[in-house]
Fold:
Amino acid sequence: MENHKKALVLVDIQNDFIPGGALAVNRGDEIIPIVNMLQKKFELIVATQDWHPANHKSFASNHPGKKPGEVIDLNGLPQVLWPDHCIQGSVGAEFHKDLQKDKWTAIFQKGKNPEVDSYSGFFDNARRGDTGLGTYLKEKGVDQVYICGLALDYCVKFTALDSKSLGFDTVLVTDATRAVNLNPEDGNLSIQELQNAGVKTLTSDSILNQ
Ligand code: VGL
Ligand code: ZN
Structure:
């Protein structure tokens, strides 16, 4: 086995992305027991948290006449409009109650600037704001980043792409994520896009059995 320093990054496993939540990801709850088992295999675990002010411009409600799912131009970037979700301090923004949290060493919040969305746990969508996650992992000597969470076609995908671009050997745990699938193939296309970018894909059983 190679001598890697590994980290597990848990992306946005928050109530609003779980069935019953404001931006529910179909079968998003199914990843919770898998993620909890995965956590037993890692010494370094961090989480990201979507954390929006109520006036965030990714919310359709802040654009009169617009509906969730429509795409607008937001300060020069295409922006999918979402239902209000993960509002700072709300129950929807809390991590799922069954998610094990005791081993986490840091939480990186994102999406705080109302003028730009932030799918990646590293940078905002304009790649200007930086959560500090990349510096944190480098300071810990991490070279291999395992990624799971919600949602595959948005925050998980962009977190994995940024991880790879920052030079981390990056692994997506394919059964520990679920997609929004605004278009039914978005999840599958995301996996292809990640593989094309050099992100590796593994299922949890291969990690749990090693
Ligand atoms: C997410 C849409 C909007 C995600 C966050 O966590 O994938 N998706 N905000
Ligand atoms: Zn969001």
Summary: The two ends are 10 Å apart (CA to CA). The chain has five helices and eight strands. The helical segments are 31-39, 133-139, 152-165, 186-196, 204-208.
